Structures are given as C-alpha cells and as structure tokens.
C-alpha cells in the first residue's frame, strides 16, 4: 500500500508533466490555414464528396451491381438500373445506373461503398463544402456526382508550335 507522501509526489509529478506539455505547446508556433484565401491541402486518405468515375473511353464505370448500396450502413445510396443497348452505350457492362443518388443528409463518409465497388466506379473526391440550409439540395444525383469528361489536362500544357 503506497504511503500518502508517495501519492502526493506522484500527483505533483503528473501535474508538472501536464503543465510542461501545456507550456511547450504555448511556445510553439501556431499553424493556421488560410482558407478561403489559400487553397486547401488535403491528406492522402481524405474522404470528401463522392465521385462517379469514367473509364478511359469516357464510359461510366458503374455497372449498377448495387454492391455499394448494399454495403452502405446509413442506407443513403439509391440506384435504378437500366440495360445497355448497342445504340445507346452508357457503360462497359450489361447495365448502367439510370438513377444514382446519394443522400448526404444520411451519409457518414465511412467508405464502405468505395471498398465494395468491384469496378472502382465510386471514389471519394476532395469536395468538402457541403453545408446547406435546404436538405433537399443534399441529395446529389448522378449528373452532379459524375466525373467530367474529357478529364482536365495534367501538368503544364505543351506547345506544338515551332519557335
């Protein structure tokens, strides 16, 4: 059984250690983000707004397999499938998602939908400005989630003109 003196010494050393940490943090420089004046830096594994990806030919990657909706614990993904035809080719598979909605009123950004997708059709983007006064505007439809095509050029533009 520890004595009262040992308890007092232990408590005093814990307080001194905590105060040392506090003073160390007070003296270190403050790191401030300059948003919205400066661009935001995201970590590599940041989970932002979802993006429905396209393949290299511009076709939608989503084949309406419903695995993302089944994996979603918040039940915020709604999909309606439609068959592809020879005249109207939307995706590389037999089907495509005619309707693909994500209700961000319910989404918890867990990433299960991204992990469940066999075609890597849905990913997390870097969108973060989601706040809204109207809950109806937080239901994102396929047109809003779909990646733009053609993709923006990467890197500096190369000039083909002769000097």
Structure characterization notes:
The chain has a domain of 96 residues: Alpha-Beta Plaits, CATH 3.30.70.3270. The termini are far apart. The protein is built from 4 helices and 5 strands. The longest helix is centred in the N-terminal third of the chain and has 24 residues. The strands form 2 sheets. The chain has a 3-stranded antiparallel β-sheet with strand order 2-3-5. The protein has 163 residues and is of the alpha+beta class.
Give descriptors for this structure:
163 residues; two-stranded antiparallel sheet; Alpha-Beta Plaits; 23% helix; 15% strand; alpha+beta
Order of helices and strands: HEHEEHEEH
Alpha-carbon Rg, integer: 25 Å
* Unreliable runs: 157-163
* Major pleated sheet: 3 strands, antiparallel
At the first level of CATH, what is the class of the domain at 50-145? Alpha Beta
What is the 3D shape?
A: elongated
Helix content percent band: 10-25%
Tally of contiguous helical segments: 4
Summarize this structure briefly.
It is built from four helices and five strands, in the order H-E-H-E-E-H-E-E-H. With 163 residues, it is α+β, with helices and mostly antiparallel strands.
